[in-house]
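User: ok so my PI wants both of these folded by tonight, can you help

Assistant: No problem, let's get them done. Here's the first:
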Amino acid sequence: MKSITYITGNMGKYENAKVFLGKYDIEVRQQKLSLDEIQGDDAVAITVRKARDAYAQLGRPLFVNDASWIIPSLNGFPGPYMRNMVEWFTMDDILTLMAHKTDRTVILRDTIVYIDDQGEHVFTHDTVGSILAEPAGEPRGPFITQIFSLRKDGKSISEDSTVGFSEEEAVLWDEFGTWLSS
């Protein structure tokens, strides 16, 4: 069985990765590290930098995973600043920003960066969804889960009963698991 270190402090992300990559006979070990996150609007570059910094600290093969949200009608906002946005804004603020927008598209850009002594391998997948006109479902995590939908039927993330990775997210993890197991 192959073993790989996942740099994350998020227990839910770790548990999902452990189950998913277990299907590829890959054991996932969690490692929490304190990393300085560079600021910028390129989510992939930020994730690559996190992987490089983690590798510099540990000196062993590892991967990091990060996601950003892109709202095309808001010129790509918030991008990598989603964590900050949910601290600065309320649900009503986002709904007000979107009130007169005809394009309510939101894109979840999920990135995995694997790094070892041979270099980096970057895996990225975009999941296209929409921003709902009003909240739906019970609060589950940040407020965006009630107004963002990644499903064709328009259900909010809060209303989605899928445990683990959604079908769309699984595309990225399948690509990573297939590559890692080869």
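One down. Here's the second:
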Amino acid sequence: MFIVVGALALTALVSFAGGALLNTVNLGAQRSVQYAADGATDIAIQSVRYRPSYFPTPSNCLTPRSSTTQSISIDTRTMAVDCSGKTTSNSAPVQIRGSILSTELTIQFETSLSTVTPPNFFVGWEVTDPSQPTHFVRTTVIESEDNATSTVTLSTPANSSGSGLSLELLPPRERVVTFYTCLAAKAPCTSANAIVMAVVDFNDSSPLGHACTASSSQTCGTSMSISQWLVTLANR
């Protein structure tokens, strides 16, 4: 009886230990894939941040883009990242009359800002003169605002002074891009097979085009925020 009881206890102990070892190995492998997916997502985010891309059609977003399917190897794991996105703006362009003062860094509006906008409402907006495109260089933005005097300070001096100008103020736009990261063998990556799904808002100082263009890529990704980061089971 003693031998039978001991044998049963030993069998249960060996089974438990074997299961624990197997679970440890499986968990380690899953964690490795998740860490690789996190790393690939980070790389893709930085790749997209400074490029004029918002992926209206879902596609691979890793660089270089010499082929339709790009992947990256991290800790022996080969990952793919696909993106889809859109642009958004919380405000419409504003038409306003004003004068470029002699400093060429200051504009005074004919409309009282204290009655139409909260303080610093226009900070970050781009200034253009549709009738005289040479007045401002591309991506001249408002850096500060004084509502009491209805004046704003520009990031770049105007090319000339003038009064009674019909100015257009263009609001900053954001590219909202969703990243889907999966094992390269299961690409294309979608919400159905993604190990990591991240939603990132890229703020661009210029709203021209879709907020940043190939000819003015220095305006891309002036700031960014991650609004969502989901990690799922690595066996997807």
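The two ends are 48 Å apart (CA to CA). Helices lie at 2-49. Good luck tonight!
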